[in-house]
Design a protein that fits this description.
heterodimer, A: alpha/beta, 6-stranded mixed beta sheet, 7 helices, 29% strand, B: alpha+beta, 9-stranded mixed beta sheet, two-stranded antiparallel ribbon, 11 strands, elongated
Chain lengths: 225, 413
């Protein structure tokens, strides 16, 4: 599914260049559940966004389903994100002036689906995550857990084959964090490839495979027991 | 979800911020519409006043001078009446209110007065070669003209009232029979002439069609008859000794006089500079004033919209980053913001036109001293202008939005 080959990412900062990723290579097979762990600032999020066609590496290549993603045009990369990748953000990133239903409709609207079919699919997804009675609520009218589920429904709207989750439980209490992990595991069971970034080793342990990152380099990996 | 719905929902969410820039663009258009509407009718009124000053271009026989014209003493200087045909059919732009004249001295009760032959408008219409003559009686807008039935109605008068009032110097007389005369105010007093009186001239009897109001010019001491009657009475043939013309002031400066000189090499074309200059400078001043005003107002509106859109883009950074991460193209993001600015422009333009028109109609009579009516033709311009300003002012903020780096925004958390 994903191949990253010798990727290096340098940021130019006022204090001088910062090496966020240093010669990282990895492979994620289709249907695999991989977690990337490491201390804060080790380059986990940069790696995840690089795999998600959002940060062009300074060196190296990233292939997604056999396509070198940073050789694609802007439109092709956008289409890849729209149709293949689903992001799970730590802060949910819901659009505040849209209802739960409309937030879930966004990826479908970007895909060019007619409004009636957008609505149908979004309602189905929200019912699936238990929010069938909160369709017209705005994010501010929902609890954190409900917001998380709206964000998850939005992630799943276009049936992504790859889910990239950046600290998906970072803002959640233990119960909601477990619920989120359950959802990710369920998706994995259904055949979706999941790559999750977390700094929590216990959560990382629920993945099939863990990649440890330190100072921008892969420091080791282990399979789940 | 559609782009339009997305934009509407965002607009509704942030009403208070929107109000400022909506007011800025609507206010700008309001002022422009109000000023343009008032100045339109004001210019018309000024134009009517200027027209009362009379012709601004004279075509005289080669040896004649302006003194001959003002003293009405042309002696033997004449030129062919066919010059009028030449001008009418030449296609020269800016020609209006052509008035060929033939002046002869006559004696009434032993006193010397001038008899001036003029050609009424109905004569122009009767000639096949002058089928397009209507065109030369309807001068272009902003040209110092009196367009029958428009401004005249607005001003509560009649532009063609000249047929019986101050017609010969300022406009073309509509109708004048072969046995009819119009008499100047002094002549009427001196000889006790009234409407309907009979006046013998060179053995023929003429009926007084109207007594002209006093003008303080040589016209007060003239008698006006049909041009062809005067030609017949004096056995002159088809000649005239002056053709008065109101040249459109803009066209005068753009080569109308050169055109006339080329067309009529045997005649002398004289510009009555003072009148032409007054007309020209009045119109130019109003145009420049309006233009400067318009530019300033539009700049203020544009800056306000640009400022609002920039703030809006900054405020919606996370939303834009999310949209891009979810798979929106930069073009899609641009479309969302441009649609928003277009909606702002169109609604601002409509509101500005409405309020501006109400203001102009309400305040026009007090400010400009003229009756003001709505100008529907301005509506389209107002909306287009507001739309253009709004979209152009948003170009930079929109480009900024489309160039945002989603990764950077997502990393901000």
């Amino acid at each position: 599914m994903i191949q990253a080959e010798k990727i290096t990412k340098r940021y130019q900062r006022r204090e001088g260049p910062v090496l966020a990723l240093d010669d990282v290579s990895l492979e994620v097979a289709e249907g695999e559940f991989v977690s990337i762990v490491g201390p804060s600032g080790c380059g986990k999020s940069t790696l995840l966004l690089t795999l998600g066609c959002l940060i062009r590496p300074s060196e190296g290549k990233v292939w997604l389903e056999g396509r070198s993603v940073y050789d694609l045009s802007h439109e092709e990369a956008a289409a890849l994100r729209l149709n293949t990748i689903g992001f799970v953000f730590q802060t949910f990133n819901l659009v505040p002036y849209l209802t739960a239903l409309e937030n879930v409709q966004i990826p479908l609207y970007l895909s060019g689906l007619p409004p009636s079919r957008q609505r149908e699919r979004a309602e189905h997804l929200l019912e699936k995550v238990g929010l069938g009675d909160r369709l017209s609520h705005k994010p501010s009218e929902l609890s954190v857990g409900q917001q998380q589920r709206v964000a998850l429904a939005r992630t799943l709207a276009n049936r992504p084959r790859l889910i990239l989750a950046d600290e998906p439980t970072g803002n959640l209490d233990p119960a909601l964090a477990k619920e989120m992990l359950d959802h990710l595991e369920e998706l994995h069971q259904e055949g979706t490839t999941v790559v999750m970034v977390t700094h929590d080793p216990r959560l990382a342990g629920r993945a099939e495979r863990q990649l440890r990152l330190a100072d921008g380099r892969v420091d080791g990996q282990s399979a789940a027991l | 979800m559609t782009t339009f719905r997305l934009v509407l929902k965002e607009l509704r969410e942030r009403k208070s911020q929107l109000v400022t820039s909506f007011v800025a663009i609507a206010l700008g258009i309001t002022v422009i519409v109000a000023v343009r509407t008032m100045s339109h009718f004001s210019e018309k009124a000024v134009a009517q006043e200027l027209d009362n000053l009379g012709a601004n271009v004279l075509i005289l026989p080669k040896g004649a001078t302006v003194t001959n014209y003002y003293t009405a003493d042309f002696g033997e200087y004449v030129m062919p009446e066919s010059y009028v045909d030449d001008i009418t059919t030449s296609g020269l732009k800016g020609v209006d209110n052509l008035s060929p004249k033939l002046t002869e001295a006559i004696s009434v009760d032993g006193e010397r007065v001038y008899l001036t032959g003029i050609l009424p408008k109905n004569e122009f219409k009767s000639k096949p070669a002058w089928q397009s003559a209507d065109g030369i009686f309807a001068r272009p807008e902003g040209c110092g003209t009196v367009v029958p039935g428009s401004v005249a109605k607005a001003l509560g008068g009649s532009a063609q009232g000249g047929a019986s009032a101050a017609a010969p110097r300022q406009a073309v007389v509509q109708e004048l029979g072969g046995a009819e005369v119009m008499v100047g105010n002094d002549v009427a007093s001196r000889f006790g002439l009234k409407v309907g009186s009979t006046l013998p001239i060179k053995g023929e009897s003429f009926t007084v069609k109207s007594v002209l109001p006093s003008t303080g010019t040589v016209d007060d001491t003239r008698i006006f008859a049909h041009l062809h009657s005067v030609q017949r009475l004096f056995h002159r043939g088809q000649v005239v000794n002056a053709v008065e013309m109101i040249g459109c002031c803009k066209e005068i400066s753009k080569g109308l006089i050169d055109g006339l000189n080329r067309l009529l090499p045997e005649a002398k074309v004289v510009t009555i500079k003072q009148i032409a200059q007054t007309q020209l400078s009045t119109n130019t001043m109003m145009e420049r004033f309006s233009l400067i005003f318009l530019v300033i107002i539009l700049l203020v509106g544009a800056v306000s919209i640009a400022n609002y859109m920039l703030a809006n883009v900054y405020e919606r950074r996370k939303e834009i980053g999310t949209l891009l991460a979810l798979g929106a193209t930069r073009q899609r993001v641009s479309r969302i913001f441009f649609l928003k600015s277009a909606l702002l422009g169109v609604t601002g333009g409509v509101a500005g036109y409405g309020v501006g028109t109400v203001l102009a109609v309400g305040l026009g009579p007090r400010i400009a001293g003229v009756p003001v009516l709505p100008l529907p033709s301005l509506a389209g311009w107002a909306v287009l202008l507001a739309l253009a300003v709004s979209v152009l002012a948003s170009a930079l903020p929109v480009a900024k939005a489309a160039r945002l780096d989603p990764a950077e925004i997502l990393r901000e958390g």
